[in-house]
Structures are given as structure tokens and as C-alpha cells.
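Escalation from tier 1.

The customer reports that the assembly of two entities below gives different C-alpha cells on two consecutive runs. Tier 1 could not reproduce it. I'm attaching the input and our single run for tier 2 to review.
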Amino acid sequence: GAVVSQHPSRVICKSGTSVKIECRSLDFQATTMFWYRQFPKQSLMLMATSNEGSKATYEQGVEKDKFLINHASLTLSTLTVTSAHPEDSSFYICSARGQDSGKLFFGSGTQLSVL
Amino acid sequence: QKEVEQDPGPLSVPEGAIVSLNCTYSNSAFQYFMWYRQYSRKGPELLMYTYSSGNKEDGRFTAQVDKSSKYISLFIRDSQPSDSATYLCAMGLRGSARQLTFGSGTQLTVLP
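Tier 1 run:
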């Protein structure tokens, strides 16, 4: 199956700092990428949809100035959590969708802990 | 009413049992259906993908889709402790750039 690489897998940072998470599609071109947040024992919560070369579409209640998404190429999308606070601590997952496939492939996730 | 309903469990079975996981949906426009497996603190892994009614088999896994009843199932034969995970059903529209619609996930534990 297709491979989506997500880095880092775990990050611990101080409150007020910014953290960047990368999501790469390694063997296919991803016109659309998605970013999710997941709390323990809960399902995926879609944060935003990222299309290559255009602005991301954010879900209701997600602050676009806090969660900056950049999809500069067909293989790379980044999520930057700006001025992180302890309540931003969560498991963040990206997914990528190919140009001609309905299949969605996920990264391995990033556990963010803000102290 | 949610577009996709999935029993969250938890579900515990003995090793070797046949596991049946199910989802129902309300949107008859869904055209393809997937099952994902998610281990704790990992991203979901695509297990099965199908876009037609009927059965699709892959090793110990069988995906079943009944579009007339808006009901999909995943069967796991000869379940193993390594199958212990959360299973998510997902469905989507062909040609749509929108993300998939997910069930809430069923937590499965296979006891040795």
C-alpha cells in the first residue's frame, strides 16, 4: 500500500513555543491531505483539509491562526501549532489521498505534549 | 442521526474466535467502503477497500457490503491477540475531494 510519512512521532515543548509537524506522501502524489486530532479512546476529529497550492479549509471551531497548514507541493503538507498551550496536547494525524483513488492513507501520528 | 453508526464496544473475544464488526449508514450516495485498523498511538492502517455490494476476502479478513440495507461488516477469522486494536469503518463518494466519513470505531480485544 501507499506510504505516508509523518514526523516527528513525538514532541514535547514548552508553553508558548511553536511546533511543526510534517506529512509526506512517499510514493504517490497527494492532491488532498487532511489533518486530524484524536483524544484517547475517541475517534478522529477532522481539523482541516489541505489542497496543494491553495489555502486550507478548516472545520468549524478550529482556529486557523493557531493551526497553520501549508501544502506547498504534491507530496508535503505541514501543520504548525503556534504558541502552543497545554490544552493543545493531543495526538495529531495526517492523511493523504491520491489523485485518482478514493483510498485514504494515514501517517503514523504525532503525540504532542505541551508543558 | 450520524451518517455512520458503529458500535464502540469494547468487544472481547477468545483467541481463535470469529469476530464480526458492523457499521450502518444513512447516505445512499456512498460508493466505496473501507475498514481501518488502528493500534494505540498509531495512525489507522487500511485493511479492506471495496466499492460494490458483496464479499471481498483477504486472508483472515472478509469485508461485506449490503448497499440495499446500508450495512457493512468486517469478519475476522481465527482471531489473534495481535488483532487487538480499534477498527474504524469509513465510506466515501467517488470523485469527491472531501474526506471520508468515519464510524466512531470499535475497540477489539482478543484474549490469548
